[in-house]
């Protein structure tokens, strides 16, 4: 009787695990192990980010719902498969062969030249598989997306409707003779969006290092204002809007020599330098930033989390062994990765941590030594989608899929079809999460 009850409860929990209101839909896909291809390690690095929050995070207790009766088989040494809930601080092993099929990813992603905006909603990227996807953010009745031709490198800002149809090209080389930043900043409270536009060099058809403008728009995409950024001839057109504060938008700017500074572009049309080093992210509330600088042991250039007082939180700068990436929409969870392959910009993800303390909430790992977990994006405050690469060894097939991690339940499921892919033929891995 007890076993029957346990099995019934387990089935019920699996049926209802995940976010409220998220239906469990079957994927129109098959798992493939058809062709054997060479596996490669592709370091996915870059700038970009979402941010951190300064908050006292409520204790999450056990990820399986707080029951002290749940435990992990001691033989697993703190690890668990996707079907076994893990306790706080445990490791969830993401094995593509063992994961059940779940609903399609609600986090936008690109695959094979197609942008998947929502389950059943797609848009063919201009330039196909050779296009570079910068950012995708929701607006009223649709999305804004930045896309560049990989050969030109000049981004265009597109507006799409709720069905994935192109509404307009907002700004780009063929629209207004300008290009836009790859990044889009979003104000979680109001839905406002910000991007940076640059003049193009008419002779080279490339971004000019001068005449950069921060543009803000409302939730419906309607332009609200423009702020000229104080660039000069030493600054390259690589400004990235990071996030909103109560006074304006923080923008990171990199010059032609690789030196960074951080600007605050105010809603009053002013702009000022607020830090003489790189800022990588801003909290949803705008009061905490993540910056790179000489903040680690021995003044190493590590990524640190800085509070309103300008001081780094000690846990974030005690070592230089980790990097930090995207944060949950409410700022209470943070992605962590290795410093040698920064999780920011689609790098490797090895854990979800508590941003107030740095404690591991759940660690993520592949099933084998050559497997990788990378490019995390949040569907909700507790639902994370990551890309997983599975390789039996260095000479046998690499298979890829998106995996949904329910951080609250400590479980995982497939969020896409499994595909065979050889990144050596294209230079990049198949899934780009946004």
Automatic annotation (TrEMBL):
TM segment ranges: 43-64
Keyword Transmembrane helix: yes
UniProt keyword terms in alphabetical order: Membrane, Transmembrane, Transmembrane helix
Chain intervals with Basic and acidic residues compositional bias: 8-18
Source domain of life: Bacteria
Region (Disordered): 1-21
Protein name: Uncharacterized protein
Organism field: Nocardioides zeae
């Amino acid at each position: 009787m007890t076993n029957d009850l346990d099995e019934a409860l387990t089935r019920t929990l699996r049926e209802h695990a995940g976010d409220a209101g998220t239906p469990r839909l079957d994927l129109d896909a098959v798992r493939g192990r058809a062709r054997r291809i060479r596996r490669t390690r592709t370091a996915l690095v870059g700038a970009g980010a979402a941010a951190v929050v300064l908050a006292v995070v409520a204790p999450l207790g056990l990820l399986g719902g707080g029951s002290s009766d749940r435990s992990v088989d001691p033989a697993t040494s703190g690890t668990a498969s996707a079907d076994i809930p893990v306790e706080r601080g445990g490791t969830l092993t993401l094995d593509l062969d063992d994961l059940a099929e779940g609903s399609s990813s609600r986090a936008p992603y690109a695959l094979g030249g197609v942008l998947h905006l929502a389950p059943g909603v797609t848009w063919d990227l201009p330039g196909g598989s050779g296009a570079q996807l910068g950012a995708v953010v929701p607006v009223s009745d649709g999305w804004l997306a930045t896309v560049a031709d990989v050969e030109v490198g000049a981004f265009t800002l597109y507006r799409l409707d709720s069905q994935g149809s192109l509404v307009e090209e907002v700004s780009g080389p063929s629209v207004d003779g300008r290009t836009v930043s790859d990044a889009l900043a979003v104000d979680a409270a109001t839905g406002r969006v910000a991007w940076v536009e640059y003049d193009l060099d008419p002779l080279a058809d490339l971004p000019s290092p001068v005449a950069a403008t921060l543009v803000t728009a409302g939730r419906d995409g309607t332009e609200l204002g423009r702020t000229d950024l104080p660039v000069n001839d030493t600054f390259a057109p690589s400004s990235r809007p990071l996030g909103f504060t109560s006074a304006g938008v923080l923008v990171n700017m990199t010059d032609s020599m690789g030196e960074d500074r951080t600007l605050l572009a105010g809603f009053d049309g002013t702009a000022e330098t607020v830090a003489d080093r790189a800022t990588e992210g801003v909290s949803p509330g705008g009061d905490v930033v993540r910056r790179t600088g000489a903040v680690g042991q021995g003044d190493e250039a590590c990524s640190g989390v800085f509070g309103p007082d300008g001081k780094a939180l000690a846990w974030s700068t005690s070592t230089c062994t980790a990097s930090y990436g995207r944060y949950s929409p409410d700022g209470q969870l943070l992605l962590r990765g290795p410093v040698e392959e920064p999780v920011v910009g689609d790098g490797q993800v090895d854990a979800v941590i508590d941003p107030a303390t740095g404690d591991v909430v759940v660690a993520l790992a592949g099933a084998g030594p050559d497997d990788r977990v990378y490019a995390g994006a949040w569907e909700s405050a507790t639902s994370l989608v990551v890309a997983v690469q599975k390789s039996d060894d260095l000479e046998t097939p690499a298979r890829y899929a998106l995996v949904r991690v329910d951080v609250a339940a400590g479980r995982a499921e497939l969020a896409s079809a499994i595909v065979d892919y050889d990144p050596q033929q294209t230079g990049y891995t198949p899934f780009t999460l946004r």
